[in-house]
Amino acid sequence: MRIGELAEKSGVTVRTIRYYIEEGLLPPPARRGSYGDFDESYIQRLQLIAELKRQRLSLSAIHDRLAAMGVLEAQHSGPYQPSLFAPSQQPLGPPTLEQEAGLFRSRFGEESGLSTDQVAQLESLGLFESREGLLPRHALPLARAVSTLLSWGATWQDIASLARNLRQEAELQQRLLRQRSTDPLSQALHWQELLRLVDTVRRALLWRWAYLDQEDA
Q1: Domain boundaries of the chain, sorted by first residue
Q2: Which of 18, 23, 34, 122 could form a disulfide with 127 if both were Cys (CB 3.0 to 4.6 A apart)?
Q3: In contact, 16 and 6? CB cutoff 8 Å
Q4: What is the pLDDT, as a whole number, of residue 32?
């Protein structure tokens, strides 16, 4: 199909589709004469990008997610580099080491509201890991959430228990995904649906056990 038909079927504008291709979030289409020929997988790819955008992820974080899921083409799976297609997103001057690879632990602590020792504790719990001494920017929302929980009276034992429970949930999701699909794109889409299903169960039970049961306590 041509790009106009893809836009109509997906609900994504032609301009946005071209932008995603320029940014490496979509692979360039096969050529048929002077036109790009998009197959049905592009609809799935656009659905996946839309779902990740609903999670308020930046383009850089979406790129990293797609690469980790094995959805990106090999030539686009390296570090995200904003293109000149969107000059307003370009940093002024050459990028610093932190801008390219992450944040130093002290800076990460400042932006998350945690001390460097607390950041190290989160690393030891496996909540995120550093690369060459730098911590990923996408882990900041998680670290900020932990910082708020600690300020509300949660203990590190509570945080560790929460991490263990989520690890068990992750193992369940892995098992269900293996049963559902094998190719990376289908698996990525199924995982997004699985997240919604598990979140529905989680919210319903937390509403019952954490909030309503206060009346019986």
Answers
A1: 3-79, 96-155
A2: 122
A3: no
A4: 85
Alpha-carbon torsion angle 118, 123, 126, 128, nearest 10: 110
| Contact present, 99 and 91 (Cβ < 8 Å) | yes
Helices 184-206 and 156-180, axial angle in degrees (round to 10): 130
- Asked if domains 3-79 and 96-155 share a fold, the reply is yes
Q: Which of 43-47, 156-160, 171-175 has the lowest mean pLDDT?
A: 171-175
Q: Count the alpha carbons within 13 Å of 127 in the hemisphere toward its beta carbon.
A: 23
Instruction: Quickly count: other Cβ atoms within 10 Å of residue 86's Cβ.
Output: 12
Give the CA distances from residue 189 to residues 73, 105, 180, 196, 209, in Å, rounded to whole numbers and listed in that order. Answer: 17, 33, 11, 11, 30
Closest CA to 207 of 199, 72, 108, 146: 199
Residues in the chain: 217
Side-chain-side CA neighbours of residue 182 (13 Å): 0
Run of H or E including 124: helix 116-124
Spatial contact of 109 and 116, defined as CB atoms under 8 Å apart: yes
Tell me the mean pLDDT in the region 104-109.
Answer: 94
Report CA-CA distances (Å) from 202 to 115, 117, 126: 30, 31, 22
- Domain 3-79 class in CATH: mainly alpha
Q: Choose the CATH number for 96-155 among 1.10.1660, 1.20.1280, 3.20.20, 3.40.50.
A: 1.10.1660
Query: What token pair was written down for 7?
Result: 């836009």
By percentage, how much of the chain surpasses pLDDT 70?
Answer: 85
